């Protein structure tokens, strides 16, 4: 399908058709290649009575709170140890390559801490509203239960997601290139209600939100956003927030970079201007080619990635029907369309949206193809309801240069080889 | 209608006047007390709002820096390990590898004061007094060449300091500069010449091992690495036979499991700098596997302070007793140690952490 010779004429694709058949046959154990028609001997898993069909299984309450079955024990968060100085102020990645649908199970949703995940009980929890308000207030966790609340599904993406890919393809796996994201259903109080309870004074134009952990991670948010769709969340996916996601209370800032979703939320200050804290000046700003930097780059632009096949999800079944699937999202609205290219961006076809996630939430897309077994250069391209089309990495670099760390929403390319292997690559003409 | 209800209604009416939209209130929560607000509302803004009274000079700041900050950021702000570099980096922001420091990048001095005071030192945060924070901030300015060594930073002169990169930031303009380009209709076919691979992630060794099960055909040579790994595993399997006597001996001295469990809790204070266990490596502090019973300053590849080096050469052995004394007051026990840790005042905590370390033999 694609010319996979490099600049130097080096064959990057690899093997001949016959070689492929041999390799794939070995890899897939032969029988699987031809699908159902290839079955020659009766399958003992069918003809013989298996233990699980004869003996009883585990009783109820064997695991009062269940974990995934042991066969799935590789579907876990993973870190990249060279990224940070220590594991306390660090990050790990959601195994998006191994998940389907759009909701991220909390147990494998990525973690990012600046001073470690703290243990803060509901009894010890306090939330204070201070600053330019008529009534500085303190709420307990029980107080918060008595405010009206709403449920919304939102993605939370770290601004540094795909940040290691600015200078070129680096990490080999969707988990590592795009796994600083999760998508959960939150129950929470509209922040507007808490601010109205305290009475924001006219000169109050910003809020400053802080965590209770030792980093006291603090971010400034314009009042307009705070009064719009920000939630003070207490549950995710129906259960109390996990410790690593800010138990018992975190901020949810739909569509905006994850660092603003302050965990273990302890104070909301109402100010006349932005605090310009460390995490909104030294970090989470975008250094441009002229040496100046963009600040307040809060919204996460439209983005997508094919989660399978991907480097950690090679094609093990050989040629034939192949499901291509992935995730798309936009911090400025809802995903309207996703296109997929099999040839590195020369030709595109529109994918089927499996789950339309809505505003500021993940959508799931599928493209069901008949793979002929030849190499492909897979790309996905998201479009949101503002008309924004996800750009190529080169188009972003043309504007932002190579020194950015954050907000890389460029199109990802996976090279698929004849043996079913998948690799993170970049392409050019 | 009672007088108090009337009062309440009047108050509500006033609130309604103050806000354009009539806000419903629930009368939940309680008034925050002045001392509570003082304890938590400590953020400092660029115009100095939030700064408390106080002052600090460069020399006092240097002492505090060495004690509290240098373990991670280096004696002169040059950074240690992968921790942030604080000083230097002038005129590097357009380089291929820019060095973003307080001097080269941070636009506001308030950010330095606020972050040091509210979030540092790492692992022992929110303990610095206002004067300490002024002093450390003064030292950071000095180490970046922004002030002279006789400089005293105060609340009064705070906003007089102009940061070198004060004009280096502008508000997000993506909507104006990028959207016109990125909202053009998406091309669907023959969108350009055929493409080829220009970069491959497998050219780098950046990805964690063990996550890729099928390699590109031309990379199968790399799979021999897996075979080497298998050989290593075989060697490891044989090894315990020789080690067995040692392990038995260790078992005789096995620490109290309850103490070890308690020590795991105390370990939280150590683990931001030290590692133990199978994959432990030197970080800000040396690997602590087998520390109980070994010579001080004996971990290969770790850069100890001169005074620790000297102690090791002089024969200091980390026994439960010497460790206990060191951990009670690290800087009192060994003036000049790079371990930026205030110590464990509680004898039970010390016994627990020593037991925990004993449970991690070398």
Strand line-up across the major sheet of chain A: 5-4-13-8-9
State the shape of chain B: globular
Mean pLDDT of chain A: 92
- Number of contiguous helices of chain B: 14
CATH superfamily caption of the largest domain in chain A: Oxidoreductase, molybdopterin-binding domain
Widest sheet, order of strands of chain B? 2-3
Seen as an oligomer or otherwise, the chain set is heterodimer
Task: Give the overall average pLDDT of chain B.
Answer: 83
Radius of gyration of chain B: 29 Å
Query: Biggest interface in this structure?
Result: A-B, 130 and 97 residues
Number of H- or I-type helical stretches of chain A:
8
Which regions of chain A are unreliable across 5 or more consecutive residues at pLDDT < 50?
1-34
Detailed description of the structure:
The complex is a heterodimer of chains A (429) and B (362). By secondary structure, chain A is mostly beta strands. Chain A folds into 2 domains: 106-294, Alpha-Beta Complex (Sulfite Oxidase, Chain A, domain 2), CATH 3.90.420.10; 303-425, Immunoglobulin-like, CATH 2.60.40. Chain A is 11% helix and 30% strand. Chain A has 8 helices and 24 strands. Chain A has helices at residues 17-28, 44-47, 51-54, 141-144, 174-178, 191-198, 223-226, 393-400; strands at residues 78-79, 90-93, 112-113, 126-131, 137-140, 150-157, 181-190, 206-211, 218-222, 231-236, 239-240, 250-252, 265-271, 286-287, 293-295, 303-308, 320-329, 335-341, 349-350, 352-355, 363-371, 376-384, 413-416, 422-428. A 5-stranded mixed beta sheet of chain A has the order 5-4-13-8-9. In chain A, 56% of the residues are buried. Mean pLDDT of chain A is 92; it is low at 1-34. With 362 residues, chain B is mainly α. Chain B folds into 3 domains: 3-38, no CATH class; 46-160, Orthogonal Bundle (Cytochrome Bc1 Complex, Chain D, domain 2); 244-358, Cytochrome Bc1 Complex, Chain D, domain 2 (Orthogonal Bundle), CATH 1.10.760. Chain B has helices spanning 3-18, 34-40, 58-68, 70-73, 109-119, 130-143, 174-177, 179-182, 224-252, 257-267, 306-313, 320-328, 330-333, 347-358, and strands spanning 30-31, 55-57, 152-154, 169-171, 196-200. Chain B has a two-stranded antiparallel sheet with strand order 2-3. In chain B, α3 (58-68) crosses α6 and α12 (320-328) crosses α14. Chain B starts with a helix and ends with a helix. At the A-B interface, α1, β1, β4, β5 and α6 of A face β1, α2, α5, β4 and α8 of B. β15 (293-295) of chain A pairs parallel with β4 (169-171) of chain B.
């Amino acid at each position: 399908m694609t010319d996979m010779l490099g600049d130097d004429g080096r064959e990057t694709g690899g093997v001949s058709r016959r070689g492929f058949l041999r390799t794939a046959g070995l890899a897939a154990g032969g029988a699987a290649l031809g699908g159902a028609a290839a079955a020659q001997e009766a399958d003992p898993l069918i003809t013989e009575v298996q233990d699980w069909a004869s003996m009883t299984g585990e009783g109820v309450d064997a695991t009062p709170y269940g974990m995934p079955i042991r066969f799935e024990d590789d579907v876990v968060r993973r870190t990249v140890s060279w990224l940070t100085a220590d594991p306390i102020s660090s990050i790990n990645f959601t195994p998006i390559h191994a998940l389907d649908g759009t909701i991220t199970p909390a147990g494998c949703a990525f973690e990012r801490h600046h001073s470690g995940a703290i243990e803060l009980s509901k009894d010890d929890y306090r939330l204070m509203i201070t600053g330019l308000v008529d009534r500085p207030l303190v709420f307990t966790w029980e107080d918060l239960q008595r405010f009206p609340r709403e449920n919304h599904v939102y993605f939370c993406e770290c601004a540094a997601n795909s940040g290691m890919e600015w200078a070129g393809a680096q990490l080999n796996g969707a988990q590592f290139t795009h796994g600083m994201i999760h998508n959960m259903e939150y129950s929470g109080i509209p922040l507007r209600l808490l601010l109205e309870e305290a009475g924001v004074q006219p000169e109050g134009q910003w809020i400053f939100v802080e965590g209770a952990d030792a980093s006291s991670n603090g971010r400034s948010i314009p009042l307009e956003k705070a009064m719009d769709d920000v939630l003070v969340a207490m549950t995710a996916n129906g259960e109390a927030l996990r410790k690593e996601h800010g138990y018992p209370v975190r901020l949810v800032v739909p569509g905006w970079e994850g660092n603003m979703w302050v965990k273990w939320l302890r104070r909301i200050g109402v100010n006349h201007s932005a605090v310009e804290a460390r995490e909104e000046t030294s970090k989470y700003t975008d250094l441009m080619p002229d040496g100046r930097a963009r600040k307040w780059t809060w919204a996460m632009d439209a983005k997508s990635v094919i989660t399978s096949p991907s480097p950690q999800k090679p094609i093990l079944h050989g040629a034939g029907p192949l499901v291509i699937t992935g995730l798309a999202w936009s911090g400025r609205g809802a995903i309207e369309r996703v296109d997929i290219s099999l040839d590195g961006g020369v030709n595109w076809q529109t994918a089927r949206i499996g789950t339309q996630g809505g505003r500021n939430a993940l959508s799931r897309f599928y493209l069901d193809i008949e793979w002929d077994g030849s190499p492909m250069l897979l790309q996905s391209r998201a479009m949101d309801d503002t008309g924004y089309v996800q750009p190529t990495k080169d188009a972003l670099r043309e504007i932002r240069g190579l020194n950015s760390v954050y907000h890389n929403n460029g199109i990802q390319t996976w090279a698929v080889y004849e043996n079913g292997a998948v690799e993170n690559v970049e392409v050019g003409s | 209608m009672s007088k108090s209800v009337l009062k309440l209604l009047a108050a509500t009416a006033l609130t309604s006047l103050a806000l354009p939209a009539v806000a419903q209130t629930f009368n939940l929560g309680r008034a925050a007390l002045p001392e509570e607000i003082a304890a938590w509302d400590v953020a400092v803004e660029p115009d100095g709002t939030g700064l408390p009274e106080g002052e600090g000079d460069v020399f006092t700041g240097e002492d505090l820096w060495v004690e509290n900050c240098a373990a991670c950021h280096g004696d002169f702000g040059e950074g240690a390990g992968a921790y942030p570099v604080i000083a230097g980096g002038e005129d590097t922001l357009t380089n291929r590898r820019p060095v973003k420091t307080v001097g080269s990048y941070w636009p506001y001095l308030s950010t330095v004061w606020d972050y040091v005071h509210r979030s540092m030192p790492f692992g022992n945060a929110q303990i610095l007094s206002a004067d300490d924070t002024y002093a450390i901030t003064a030292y950071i300015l000095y180490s970046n060449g922004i002030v002279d060594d006789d400089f005293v930073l105060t609340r009064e002169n705070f906003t007089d300091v102009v940061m070198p990169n004060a004009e280096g930031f502008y508000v997000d303009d993506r909507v104006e500069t990028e959207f016109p380009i990125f909202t053009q209709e998406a091309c669907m076919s023959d969108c350009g010449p055929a493409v080829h691979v220009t970069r491959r992630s497998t050219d780098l060794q950046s990805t964690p091992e063990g996550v890729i099960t099928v390699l590109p055909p031309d990379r199968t040579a790399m799979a021999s690495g897996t075979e080497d790994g298998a050989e290593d595993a075989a060697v490891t399997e044989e090894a315990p036979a020789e080690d067995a006597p040692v392990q038995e001996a260790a078992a005789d001295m096995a620490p109290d499991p309850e103490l070890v469990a308690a020590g795991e809790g105390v370990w939280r204070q150590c683990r931001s700098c030290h590692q133990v266990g199978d994959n432990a490596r030197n970080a800000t502090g040396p690997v602590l596997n087998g520390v109980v019973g070994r010579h001080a300053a004996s971990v290969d590849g770790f850069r100890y302070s001169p005074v620790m080096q000297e102690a090791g050469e002089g024969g200091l052995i980390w026994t439960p007793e010497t460790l206990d004394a060191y951990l009670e007051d690290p800087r009192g026990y060994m003036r000049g140690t790079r371990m930026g840790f205030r110590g464990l005042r509680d004898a039970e905590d010390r016994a627990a952490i020593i037991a925990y370390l004993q449970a991690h033999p070398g």
